[in-house]
Amino acid sequence: MKVLNLFTFLIFFIQKSAFSLEVDKKLMFSIINFSKTKRTLLINKGLENGLKKGDQAKFFLNSENLVARATLIKASPMRSLWSVFKYRNKNVVRKGRVLNLIITKKIPLTNDVTKKIFKSGTFSGKEDKILISTRKN
Fold it and tell me: Can you give the pTM of this predicted structure?
């Protein structure tokens, strides 16, 4: 009985880890399409490649050129739809462009203006920026 339980646990563990990319894992993809604002990207990798809804990733042109940070909002076996929340270089995005993605640790996202951390749409990573309120008291 113990052997059967152990065997069942191992199969479950192997299946769980085999179907999701771990943090810092790299995957090459190409852009199939994107929205007018380039805030939503459709790429040619999906569930079969270990991606899952809620994943966050950095998109790179090469190992040094960060393009964007995004979160996966919808996935099918062969494609996935990503919502970009930070751009470093929006001009790189075009149909057929081959990029790399690296799964990252999740950072909390919010639409509440009072809870935003950064003032600018593009964060340099070299300094912290704090949202400055434009409201007059």
Answer: 0.66
